[in-house]
C-alpha cells in the first residue's frame, strides 16, 4: 500500500523561477493493481511518480510505503528501498548510449552485489521474454523506439520489484507498439505486481488494463 | 542481501565492468588523456631514474677512491707536489698508505676534446704505450695497435702505441681517460721526475679522517686536503643541478598536463550528467557513482602510470636514455656510452605515483560528487 499525505513539491524554492508542481495531494494506491495518473502535460503526473518512487523528496507532506514513511529516510536507505521495491520506465527510455542492451539491463543490479552470472542469466531471460534475445549485444542507440521501450521495461524488472512505475509509456510509440507494451504491463499485473503509470493517451485507457484512474490537474487531484 | 560474503566483490566487479565499458565508450578522449599521461610519467620517471642511477654509479666508483687527497697550493693555485711531501705525510699517525699520483688534462685541438692523462703507480703501461677509454677510442676510430700522437709541452708530437681499450662499465668517469707510463707522463708535460700532481692517502680508521686531515694541514702548510665525502658531495651536487634543470623544464609539461587533465577530467559533459542521473534513478546511490568514477580514474591513471614508468625504465636502462644524454652525463665533450645497472626503488615509484595518480583521481571525483548528490528525478523531467 502506497499513501501520499498532504504531499507538496516545490522546485527552485526561494529562486525567481520557483514553481510548485504538486500541491497538498493525498491519495492511496492499493497493491497488485494497475493505477493510472491521468492529466494534461504539465499537470504534475511525472513529479508525483518521482515522489511515489522516492526519486525526489516532498517539500512537505509524507509518502508512506506499507506504513513506513519514506520521505524522511537517509539517501542510502531510500536508494536501497527504491532499488528493491520500484522499477522505473522513463518517458525518454533513458538507456545509456554506447553500452550494450545487456549491460543496460544489468545496470540496476550492480549495487546489489548479486553474483554476476545470476544477474546476467536473469537479464538474458528478460530479454528473451520480450523477444530481444538477439539484440542483447546491440548498442542502446541502435534500437528502434519499441525495442528501446522493451529494454527499459526489462531493466526495470532486473531487481524483481513489486511496483513498476511507468511515465507516459506509450508517448513515443505507434498504436501497434503501444498495445504490445500495454500487454506486457498486463502480464506484469498478472504476476502480482503493482503498475503505476502516468498517461494522457486515450489508447491506454481504452485498452482495459487500468483499474483505477487518478485525475491530476494543476498539481492536485481533481475531484 | 543473500550473498554476504561475495556481495562486496561482486559489487566492485560490476563497478569495474561498467568503468571499463565507460572508458571504451569515450575512446578518443580517454586515449588522448592516456597518451598525455603516459608521456608525462615517462619523462618524469626517466629523469628521476636516470639521475638516481648516475648518483649510485658515482658513489660506487668513489667507494674505491682514497679517503683523502692532498694537493699543493701556491698562491692559491694548484702546484706540483715535491717528493719530500710524500715522505712527510707517510710519517703521520693514522695514515696507512700514501702514494703520489700523476695526472693532468690535455686539450687535443684535433678532436676538440679534453683528455685526462693518468700515470698509475700500479701496473703502469710500458713506456711508449697508452691505454684509452672506450669513448675516446670510438670517437677517434682507434683500436689496439694504433698509434696516437699528441702534442707535448714543447709543441713536439709524442707518439703512443695503444695497448688496451677500457671496459664500458667504467665509462662514466673514464670516458676521456688515457693511462700512460709515469716517465712518459713527465716527459709529455715537462715535469721533473719525482714530482706529483697530488697525494692519495688511505686512512686506517675511517672515523679519524677529519683528524688525519688536520694533521696533514699542520705538517704541510699550504696544502689543500680533500676528503672522499667532499668529492661525493660534488658529484651529487653536479647531478642534482642537472636533474633540477631538467625537472624545471618538465614542470612546464606537468602544468600543461594538469590543465589538460583538469579540463578533460573535471568538466562533466551534459551527457555524463544525464548518465549519472540515470544511474541514480535506477538505484545507484551517490557512493556507487563515486566508486565507479574512482575506478574509472584509477584504471586510466594507473595503466598510464605503469606504461610510462616501464617505458622510462627501458629508456634509461636499456636504451641508454638518448633523450637526456647531453644534459645528464659526461664531464667533457666526449660523452660516455654505458649502461646503468637496472634498479627498482619502491620509495621512488611511490613518490611518482602520488605526484601523478592522486591529483588526477581527485580532479575527476570533485565534479562527479557535485553531480551525484543531485536528486535523480531530473531524469524524469527531461
Structure description:
The complex is a heterodimer of chains A (223) and B (382). Chain A has 223 residues and is α/β, with parallel strands linked by helices. Chain A has a single domain (2-221), classed as 3-Layer(aba) Sandwich (Rossmann fold), CATH 3.40.50. Chain A has 7 helices and 10 strands. Chain A has helices at residues 45-52, 75-85, 101-106, 116-129, 145-157, 175-190, 202-206, and strands at residues 2-11, 19-29, 34-38, 60-65, 68-69, 86-89, 163-167, 194-199, 212-217, 220-221. Chain B folds into 2 domains: 7-61 and 234-379, no CATH class; 81-196, Barwin-like endoglucanases (Beta Barrel), CATH 2.40.40. Chain B is built from 12 helices and 10 strands. Chain B has helices at residues 7-25, 27-62, 83-90, 134-140, 171-174, 182-189, 209-219, 228-266, 270-281, 286-317, 325-328, 346-372; strands at 68-74, 77-79, 95-108, 113-119, 129-132, 147-151, 157-165, 177-180, 198-203, 223-227. In chain B, strands 1, 2, 3, 4, 5, 6, 7, 8, 9 and 10 form a 10-stranded mixed sheet that branches. In chain B, helix 2 packs across helix 10 (286-317) and helix 2 runs antiparallel to helix 12. The interface between A and B is large, with 39 and 38 residues.
Keywords:
heterodimer; A: 223 residues; alpha/beta; Rossmann fold; six-stranded mixed β-sheet; four-stranded antiparallel β-sheet; 26% strand; B: Barwin-like endoglucanases; ten-stranded mixed β-sheet; 17% strand; elongated
Briefly, what is this?
The complex is a heterodimer of chains A (223) and B (382). Chain A contains 7 helices and 10 strands.
Write the layout of secondary structure elements.
The complex is a heterodimer of chains A (223) and B (382).
Chain A (H helix, E strand, L loop, with lengths): L1 E10 L7 E11 L4 E5 L6 H8 L7 E6 L2 E2 L5 H11 E4 L11 H6 L9 H14 L15 H13 L5 E5 L7 H16 L3 E6 L2 H5 L5 E6 L2 E2 L2
Parallel strand pairs in A: 3-8, 3-9, 6-7, 7-8
Antiparallel strand pairs in A: 1-2, 1-4, 4-5, 9-10
Chain B lengths: L6 H19 L1 H36 L5 E7 L2 E3 L3 H8 L4 E14 L4 E7 L9 E4 L1 H7 L6 E5 L5 E9 L5 H4 L2 E4 L1 H8 L8 E6 L5 H11 L3 E5 H39 L3 H12 L4 H32 L7 H4 L17 H27 L10
Parallel strand pairs in B: 4-8, 5-7
Antiparallel strand pairs in B: 1-2, 1-9, 1-10, 3-4, 3-9, 5-8, 6-7
Amino acid at each position: 500500500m502506497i499513501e501520499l499525505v498532504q504531499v507538496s513539491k516545490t522546485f527552485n524554492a526561494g529562486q525567481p523561477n520557483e514553481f510548485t508542481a504538486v500541491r497538498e495531494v493525498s491519495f492511496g494506491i492499493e497493491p497488485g493493481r494497475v493505477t493510472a495518473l491521468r492529466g494534461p502535460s504539465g499537470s504534475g503526473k511525472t513529479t508525483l511518480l518521482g515522489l511515489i518512487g522516492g526519486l525526489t523528496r516532498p517539500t512537505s507532506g509524507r509518502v508512506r510505503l506499507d506504513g513506513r514513511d519514506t520521505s524522511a529516510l537517509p539517501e542510502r536507505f531510500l536508494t536501497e528501498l527504491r532499488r528493491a521495491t520500484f522499477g522505473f520506465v522513463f518517458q525518454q527510455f533513458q538507456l545509456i548510449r554506447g553500452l550494450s542492451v545487456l549491460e543496460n539491463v544489468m545496470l540496476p543490479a550492480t549495487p546489489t552485489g548479486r553474483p554476476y552470472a545470476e544477474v546476467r542469466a536473469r537479464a538474458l531471460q528478460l530479454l528473451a521474454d520480450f523477444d530481444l534475445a538477439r539484440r542483447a549485444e546491440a548498442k542502446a542507440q541502435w534500437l528502434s523506439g519499441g525495442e528501446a521501450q522493451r529494454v527499459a521495461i526489462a531493466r526495470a524488472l532486473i531487481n524483481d520489484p513489486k511496483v513498476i512505475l511507468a511515465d507516459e509509456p506509450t508517448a513515443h510509440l505507434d498504436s501497434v507498439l503501444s498495445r504490445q507494451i500495454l500487454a506486457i504491463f498486463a502480464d506484469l499485473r498478472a504476476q502480482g505486481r503493482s503498475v503505476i503509470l502516468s498517461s494522457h493517451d486515450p489508447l491506454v485507457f481504452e485498452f482495459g488494463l487500468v483499474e483505477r484512474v487518478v485525475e491530476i490537474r494543476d498539481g492536485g487531484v481533481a475531484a | 542481501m543473500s550473498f554476504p560474503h561475495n556481495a562486496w566483490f561482486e559489487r566492485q566487479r560490476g563497478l569495474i565492468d561498467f568503468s571499463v565499458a565507460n572508458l571504451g565508450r569515450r575512446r578518443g578522449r580517454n586515449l588522448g588523456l592516456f597518451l598525455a599521461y603516459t608521456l608525462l610519467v615517462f619523462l618524469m620517471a626517466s629523469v628521476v631514474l636516470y639521475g638516481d642511477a648516475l648518483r649510485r654509479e658515482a658513489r660506487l666508483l668513489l667507494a674505491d677512491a682514497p679517503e683523502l687527497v692532498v694537493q699543493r697550493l701556491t698562491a692559491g693555485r694548484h702546484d706540483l707536489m715535491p717528493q719530500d711531501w710524500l715522505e712527510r705525510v707517510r710519517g703521520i699517525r693514522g695514515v696507512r698508505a700514501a702514494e703520489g699520483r700523476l695526472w693532468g688534462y690535455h686539450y687535443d685541438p684535433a678532436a676538440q676534446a679534453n683528455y685526462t692523462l693518468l700515470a698509475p703507480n700500479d701496473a703502469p703501461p710500458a713506456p711508449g704505450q697508452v691505454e684509452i677509454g672506450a669513448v675516446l677510442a670510438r670517437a677517434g676510430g682507434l683500436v689496439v695497435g694504433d698509434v696516437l700522437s699528441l702534442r707535448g709541452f714543447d709543441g713536439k708530437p709524442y707518439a703512443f702505441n695503444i695497448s688496451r681499450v677500457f671496459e664500458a662499465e667504467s665509462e662514466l668517469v673514464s670516458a676521456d681517460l688515457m693511462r700512460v707510463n709515469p716517465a712518459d707522463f713527465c716527459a709529455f708535460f715537462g715535469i721533473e721526475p719525482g714530482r706529483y700532481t697530488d697525494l692519495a692517502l688511505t686512512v686506517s680508521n675511517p672515523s679519524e679522517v677529519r683528524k688525519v686531515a688536520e694533521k696533514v694541514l699542520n705538517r704541510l702548510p699550504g696544502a689543500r686536503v680533500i676528503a672522499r665525502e667532499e668529492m661525493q658531495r660534488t658529484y651529487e651536487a653536479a647531478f642534482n643541478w642537472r636533474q633540477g634543470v631538467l625537472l624545471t623544464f618538465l614542470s612546464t609539461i606537468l602544468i600543461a598536463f594538469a590543465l589538460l587533465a583538469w579540463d578533460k577530467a573535471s568538466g562533466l559533459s551534459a551527457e555524463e550528467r544525464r548518465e549519472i542521473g540515470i544511474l541514480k534513478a535506477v538505484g545507484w546511490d551517490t557512493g556507487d557513482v563515486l566508486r565507479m568514477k574512482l575506478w574509472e580514474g584509477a584504471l586510466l591513471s594507473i595503466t598510464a602510470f605503469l606504461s610510462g614508468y616501464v617505458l622510462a625504465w627501458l629508456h634509461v636502462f636499456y636504451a641508454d636514455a638518448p633523450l637526456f644524454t647531453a644534459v645528464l652525463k659526461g664531464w667533457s665533450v666526449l660523452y660516455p656510452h654505458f649502461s646503468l645497472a637496472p634498479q627498482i626503488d619502491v620509495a621512488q615509484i611511490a613518490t611518482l605515483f602520488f605526484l601523478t595518480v592522486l591529483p588526477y583521481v581527485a580532479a575527476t571525483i570533485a565534479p562527479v560528487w557535485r553531480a551525484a548528490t543531485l536528486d535523480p528525478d531530473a531524469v524524469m523531467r527531461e
